[in-house]
Each structure stands twice: as C-alpha cells, then as structure tokens.
C-alpha cells in the first residue's frame, strides 16, 4: 500500500514538472530555461527535482516520448505506407477536395510521431527554435527502421540512398510544417501538394 501511495506521489510530481516546462516554453526558449526557474514554476525544491530527473533534458525527453506515444496510440489513426500516401495525393489533385477530405493526409508519409505537433498541449515543443535538431534526431531514430525499407521498395534505391532520402523528407517536411505553425489550413495543403509532386517516384 505504501508503495502505491509513493508511486502516485511520484507520478503527480513528475507531471507537475513536465507541465511547468511546457508553461515556461510559452515565454522563453528551451535553452534559456534553468532548473531554478523550473523549480520555481513547479513550486518544488531543487532536491525534489533531482529526485525525479537528472536534468532538464530528461524532462524534455519524457515529454516528447509521452507526446509521441499518445499519438501512436490514437485509435483514430491508421498509418499509411508511403506508396499509398503518394498515390492518394496524386489522385485527389483537386484543391477543394484536398482541403476538406479527412482521408487525404500527407503527414502519413512521415513518421506518425510528427502528428504529435498537432496536439495543442505539446505543440509548443515543436515550435521552439532551439529544440528542432533534438526533436528531428528523435523522430529519425524512432521511425528509421520502418521507413527505410519502405523507401527502398518504392524508389528502388539502396539502403544508404533511402536513408538520405528519408532525412530529406523528414527535415524538409518538418521545416515546412513549422513555418506554417503546424496548422492544417489551405496553405498547408497547398504546400503538401507541392511536396508530394516533388517526391513522386518515377513510374
């Protein structure tokens, strides 16, 4: 019984710390946030913080894992293979159809975890300029095993070539989505159509 109470207390404290980091990111870049500021926002002591995390990077890492895990467990999401996504986007070439169709989803081309940026709670993580490299590295490591063979099959390239193509897709799409604030508006669909045409494999 005592252990269960301790576990609940630990979970509560860690959630407070993570929520505090998200709150601070609304007013400051990640690289400028200190443990002291995070403790003040969380209303805890430094000792309490270090009982749960070694540093702020550990808090960020847990937040990102949480955001990506929730995205992957979303019952309404069914990831599409690259070939299916490209074919669907090319068939549905009408602008109005692309902007309103729930079935058209260019993001399916990329790791499903990138969809986490659409979650209002975690969006600030993907908008922070100082965290892009860290997030992209995490997205790459998380999706590489699945996406590289897929790209090899669709584009008939070597593993090395598929890896570079995946990096191009991932980093380029991330930059475009970030420039648009991760909002799926008419400009977003227009940009995705251009990207889809660019990466269309040769028939």
Summarize the structure.
This protein has 203 residues and is mainly alpha-helical. It has ten helices and no strands.
Kindly describe this structure.
The protein is mostly helical. The protein folds into two domains: 2-53, Orthogonal Bundle (Arc Repressor Mutant, subunit A); 70-198. The chain has helices at 2-25, 35-42, 46-52, 56-72, 82-91, 95-100, 123-127, 132-155, 159-179, 186-198. The N and C termini lie far apart (63 Å).
Please name the defining characteristics of this protein:
single chain, 203 residues, mainly alpha, Arc Repressor Mutant, subunit A, 67% helix, 0% strand, elongated
Strand content of the residues, in percent?
A: under 5%
Number of helices: 10
How many angstroms does the end-to-end distance come to?
63 Å
Low-confidence stretches: 75-80, 86-113
How many whole angstroms does the radius of gyration measure? Answer: 20 Å
What string gives the helices and strands in order?
HHHHHHHHHH
Total beta strands: 0
Largest sheet: number of strands, sense, barrel closure: none
Gross morphology: elongated
Total count of domains: 2
Mean pLDDT: 80
């Amino acid at each position: 019984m005592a252990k269960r109470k301790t576990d609940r207390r630990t979970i509560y404290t860690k959630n407070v710390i993570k929520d505090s980091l998200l709150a601070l990111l609304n007013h400051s870049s990640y690289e400028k946030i200190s443990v002291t500021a995070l403790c003040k926002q969380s209303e805890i002591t430094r000792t309490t913080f270090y009982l749960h995390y070694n540093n702020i990077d550990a808090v960020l890492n847990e937040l990102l894992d949480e955001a990506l895990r929730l995205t992957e467990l979303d019952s309404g999401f069914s990831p599409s293979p690259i070939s299916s996504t490209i074919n669907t986007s090319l068939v549905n070439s009408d602008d109005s159809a692309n902007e309103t169709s729930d079935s058209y989803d260019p993001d399916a081309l990329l790791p499903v975890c990138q969809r986490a940026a659409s979650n209002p709670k975690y969006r600030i993580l993907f908008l922070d300029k100082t965290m892009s490299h860290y997030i992209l590295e995490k997205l790459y490591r998380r999706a590489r095993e699945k996406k590289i063979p897929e790209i090899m099959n669709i584009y008939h390239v070597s593993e090395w070539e598929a890896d570079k193509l995946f990096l191009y897709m991932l980093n380029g799409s991330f930059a475009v989505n970030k420039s648009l604030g991760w909002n799926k508006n008419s400009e977003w669909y227009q940009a995705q159509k251009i990207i889809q045409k660019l990466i269309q494999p040769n028939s």
